[in-house]
TrEMBL record:
Transcription listed as a keyword: yes
SUPFAM superfamilies: Periplasmic binding protein-like II, Winged helix' DNA-binding domain
Alphabetic keyword roster: DNA-binding, Transcription, Transcription regulation
Taxonomy of the source species: Bacteria, Pseudomonadati, Pseudomonadota, Alphaproteobacteria, Rhodobacterales
Domain HTH lysR-type span(s) in chain numbering: 9-66
Residues of the signal peptide: none
Family that this chain belongs to: Belongs to the LysR transcriptional regulatory family.
Tagged with keyword Transcription: yes
The name this protein goes by in its record: DNA-binding transcriptional regulator, LysR family
Entries under PROSITE patterns matching the protein: HTH_LYSR (PS50931)
Stored Pfam families: HTH_1
UniProt source species: Roseivivax lentus
Domain of life: Bacteria
């Protein structure tokens, strides 16, 4: 394969490639770019020649990216995102008129996400809010500008080039279905008779809850795992499992499934939480506005839901 001549690359081709990756068809990409389908097909032909790869092949009636195209997508996305930022006029951000896409990585918290989305939609009706799953690469994505804001829990080390603000420590509660037999005499001995449901949000080994159980010598046996917080509700409703989770992630699930709130047998105390962002965009007006808006909404949500759960909690018997 011949070496790519960067001076011969047409930036419009990269925009076309991005649209094809995200839209999945020539017609949809053409609509997005306000071009004809013929123009997009011609651009795709030029890219295939330039990269010596078909890039997209038709499978089952749909355009599917090749492995080379997927690799290019990962590399090109931050380049185009940063280029757009660089070309934006300085100091012109206006929430009321912006059409920016804001990306926030956060553990699933439906109630907070709904509240934050509603607030941002009210203040910035043309903006789009993209909630991104928590994953091991989030910090790199933050540095590269692929996400704007990252919710970080625990004493995790933040990489160079990342700034953060401390949030109020999260409070953990345990949850069971209404009528669970453990509620009659809720104690450490009672809890030890039942198995636990864990939310495996990422594969990082032991959870902070497991560590507390070991420190207090209160054994915990797992009876199941789910991959997201909202899934705990229906599982608890049909079982005698117990789950211990952070308050901010459980508001909707607690109320929707009418779960009983319990004082945990073992849970982290003063568990640190932060919102983090790239130092490169620390002074970007849009990023500042997003941080201020989301962090204020989060602080209020966390305080409100924790207060409500404290009022409803069943405390441990001696």
């Amino acid at each position: 394969m011949s070496q790519i001549q960067l001076h011969k690359i047409d930036l419009n081709l990269l925009s076309t490639f991005e649209a094809l990756i995200e839209e999945g068809s020539v017609a949809a990409a053409a609509d997005r770019l306000h071009l004809t389908a013929s123009a997009v097909s011609h651009a795709l032909g030029r890219m295939r020649t330039q990269f010596d790869d078909p890039l997209f092949v038709r499978v089952g009636g749909k355009m599917q990216p090749t492995p080379r195209a997927l690799l290019l997508a990962d590399e090109i996305a931050p380049i185009l995102r940063n280029l757009r930022r660089a070309l934006e006029p300085a100091e012109t951000f206006d929430p009321a008129t912006t059409n920016r896409v804001f990306r926030i990585a956060l553990h699933s918290s439906p109630a907070f996400m709904a509240q934050a989305t509603a607030e941002i939609s009210r203040l910035a009706p043309g903006a789009m809010l993209d909630w991104v799953r928590i994953k091991p690469t989030n910090q790199n994505d933050l540095i590269d500008g692929l996400i704007d804001l990252l919710h970080v829990g625990g004493p995790a080390h933040l990489a160079d080039g990342i700034q953060a603000v401390d949030l109020p420590p999260v409070t953990f509660f345990s949850f069971v279905r209404r009528g669970h037999p453990a509620v009659e005499t809720w104690s450490a001995d009672t809890a030890a008779k039942y198995r636990y449901l864990q939310v495996a949000v990422e594969d990082t080994g032991g959870t902070p809850i497991e560590k507390e159980h070991r420190l207090l010598d209160r054994p915990r046996t797992l009876g199941g795992k789910v991959h997201d917080f909202p899934l705990t509700g229906p599982v608890l409703l049909e079982s005698d499992l117990i789950t211990t989770q952070p308050s901010f992630a459980m508001m909707e699930t607690w109320k929707r499934y009418d779960l009983q709130v319990l004082e945990p047998v073992a849970a982290p105390k003063d568990f640190p939480m932060r919102f983090a962002w790239s130092a490169r965009y620390a002074t970007d007006p849009a990023n500042i506005w997003l941080r201020d808006t989301v962090i204020a909404a989060y602080r209020k949500h966390e305080a409100d839901i924790t207060a409500q759960m404290h009022e409803a909690v069943l405390t441990l018997e001696p």
